[in-house]
Specification:
With 363 residues, this protein is of the alpha+beta class. It has helices at residues 27-35, 47-58, 75-83, 91-97, 116-122, 173-191, 247-255, 263-284, 290-296, and strands at 2-4, 18-19, 38-44, 70-74, 106-113, 132-138, 148-149, 155-164, 200-202, 206-209, 212-224, 227-237, 303-309, 316-326, 332-336, 341-346, 357-361. The strands form 3 sheets. Strands 4-3-5-6-8-12-11-10-9 form a 9-stranded mixed beta sheet, sandwiched between helices. Strands 1-13-14-15-16-17 form a 6-stranded antiparallel beta sheet, with no helix packed on it. Strands 2-7 form a two-stranded antiparallel sheet.
């Protein structure tokens, strides 16, 4: 177990916005909504992606877990109807703001579905790398350790695909995703005359603003054909003030600015940032992004107590360590009071990573 000591920069950690399954949605309501066909609207940035969308629809290629019913529609066939739907994700606005060469150019949008992560991971081989699935509402969103992520309207929820060859750096890609999202929010604010809100990263994959959690990242991977197929999912509270708070509410409180951040602008800015950071990450390693990452995260110089059991598991010793950064394997790098470097690992049991760290010496 890990405890804070002294007077760290951040004295308390807010409650996470993961919620137990028992209070997400009523069983009967969830079951009825999940049994109805899931509408997937396909759109591409260029003619190449739109031709693929037509092919996927014609061949009835896309599938969902448990063979759930799907209604596949092309954006070009549904454009007028979408524009009249209140609070719907505006596909054209997103595409107009996107300037990438790979990521985010093939879009799957759904007004309501079980999980965006399920869509991209279940159809990984059929979709182009960098394909993204966005939903207005999720019924079975997932967080870390199989926690349920509440996904009401106003929350930005999307998942996308990427592929990696070096398994040693796969655990680090979640940090690139976190960094790109934090920088994307700042970028959208600056372009609209709003002071950057200083979104911060809580290791390993949460986003905080003004002491409150506003977002989280989940990355999963499978190994096939000598490559790692990675599905990255992001949940960000943009306009939904429940169950905790959201970006727009905090920004308005801190700045008195009336402008409202839009989901389409944020996800487009994310991919514009991520594609650049990802290329640097693959070509130069995470070290090339470390300086920017450490400016954004919460933990540099944070002093903590690591509680460890002895070999007989009958006594607990306490060791004070100071967090320095991230190791090459993606865990926390810390230094003991006598100057010995060590690596902090989650114990695999604690809900909060910082309440269950195991110390390992670095040779």
């Amino acid at each position: 177990m890990l405890l804070f000591i002294g007077s760290p920069r951040f004295l308390s950690l807010p409650k996470l916005i993961f919620i137990p399954k028992t209070i997400s949605l009523s069983v009967s309501a969830s079951k009825m909504e999940l049994e109805s066909p899931t509408t997937l609207i396909l759109c591409g940035k260029s003619s190449t992606e739109n031709e693929l969308a037509m092919l996927l629809k014609t061949n009835n290629t896309l599938k969902l877990p448990e063979n759930a019913s799907i209604n596949v529609v092309l954006h070009s066939e549904n454009e007028k109807q979408e524009s009249f739907q209140k609070d719907a994700f505006q596909i054209d606005s997103y595409m107009n703001s996107l300037s990438t060469s790979r990521f985010g150019k093939f879009l799957i949008y759904s007004p309501k579905l079980a999980s965006t992560h399920d869509v991209v991971s279940h159809n990984f081989c059929e979709l182009p790398l960098g394909a993204v699935c966005v939903a207005d509402v999720q019924l079975k969103g997932r967080g870390r350790s199989k926690n349920v992520w509440e996904s009401p309207k106003g929350c930005l929820m999307f998942s996308f695909t990427l592929q990696m060859e070096d398994g040693r750096v796969v655990p680090l890609v979640q940090y690139v995703v976190c960094l790109a999202m934090a920088e994307a929010i700042n970028d959208v604010c600056l372009r609209n005359g709003i002071p950057p809100p200083n979104v911060r990263i809580k290791w390993p994959n949460d986003l905080y603003l003004d002491g409150l959690k506003v977002g989280g990242i989940l990355c999963t991977s499978t190994y096939r054909s000598k490559k790692f197929s990675v599905s990255a999912g992001i949940g960000l509270n943009v306009s939904n003030e429940k169950p905790t708070t959201c970006l727009n509410a905090i920004i308005q409180r801190l700045t008195s600015v009336v402008y409202q951040l839009q989901r389409e602008d944020i996800v487009a800015a994310f991919f514009n940032k991520f594609e650049n950071y990802y290329d640097i990450f693959i070509c130069q390693g995470f070290q090339a992004l470390e300086e920017l990452y450490y400016k954004t995260w919460l933990h540099s110089g944070q002093r903590v107590i690591v509680q460890e059991k002895n070999e007989n598991q009958d006594q607990i010793s306490e060791n004070v360590v100071t967090i320095q950064g991230i190791t090459t394997s993606g865990y926390l790098l810390a230094v003991t009071e006598d100057g010995q470097a060590c690596e902090l690992h989650p114990d695999g049991n604690s809900f909060d990573f910082f309440k269950g760290l195991v110390r390992r010496k670095l040779v």
